[in-house]
Amino acid sequence: MENVLRPVIVVGASVVLTLAVGWMVDAALRRADARQPERPLWGLLRRCRLPLQVVLCTALLRGSYERAEIAVEHSAGIARLLTLVLIGSVAWLAVRISAAIVEASYARYAAAHRDPARVRRVRTQVTLIQRVVTAVIGVVAVAAMLLTFPAMQTAGASLLASAGILGIVAGVAAQSTLGNLFAGLQIAFGDMVRIGDTVVVDGEWGTVEEITLTFLAVRTWDERRITMPVSYFTSKPFENWSRGGAQMTGTVFFHLDHTAPVAAMREKLHEVVRDCAAWDGRDWGLAVTDTTPNTILVRALVTAKDADDIWTVRVTVREQLVAWLAEHHPYALPRVNTAWAELPPDGERPSPPAPPTAPTPPLPRTGRG
Length: 369
Known about the structure:
This protein is an alpha+beta fold. It is 56% helix and 15% strand. The chain is elongated, with a radius of gyration of 37 Å. The model is unreliable at 168-175 (pLDDT under 50).
């Protein structure tokens, strides 16, 4: 009877104590979160309840397993298994705690600052910091697990002795990976590009969606994802439309006939941008920027608060001005001057040029001579 009750008591007591401690910690964090709602740390730390309970339960079982006298002949293997689970759960808990601290710091910074550029910069930095911390914790946890095996402990001295040679070989073999790693850190803390920036890379326009230590993902306007190594952004030029501020100026070009009513187009442009919700009201304008023997080049200039809105303003101006010209001033649209299709409002139809006279062919010669 004792052989049955002892394991039940040991395991049951460990589970009950684990659940009780987990419930008490969660209740304390919930009360702290309700008392200080402006600090998101307490609410984020509640995500650590499950790994905390695993750590407590594993630690209790590891400390009291020998007293339970379960599978005595396999006690060494079970003890090593509990140790491995304990190391993994501690690493899990450390990752959750670090993530909660980083996210809470970013949330407080974002709430205190209204500058989108600075907020995106901090978001990029904390994201990469969290990835570095997770990688370091994972490496340390795996190393600690391996060192629990006697064979690995015996090989530790030889591994340390050959660490210099292995480091050189690994550095040569992973040169591109290490280059991307340092490039990722350079991007994060050099403020070259941030999550949410609008960039043009290899002729593709998109928004930076994700930055890791090795690659960067750009989401294009048609929902495609372009994945590029971060070393690309430290070695080649690229356009960053969000650098120094998100406000943008856009242009729309029209190829029109020389008789186009530029003044009336300027008034119509003002009407269009005034009714466009995406226009930020900073500036607008219309001017003839070039001329050719057949057409003139008219440029409409508009502004908006970011890249998405400038696209909306440009397509709105282009669509409404072309429709207005086609309805009210069709003579202003470019055409091939082979016939006079439309008269100017107050002009006369000019006479078409006379066709050139063909030269008279020479008379055939007759007779000899």
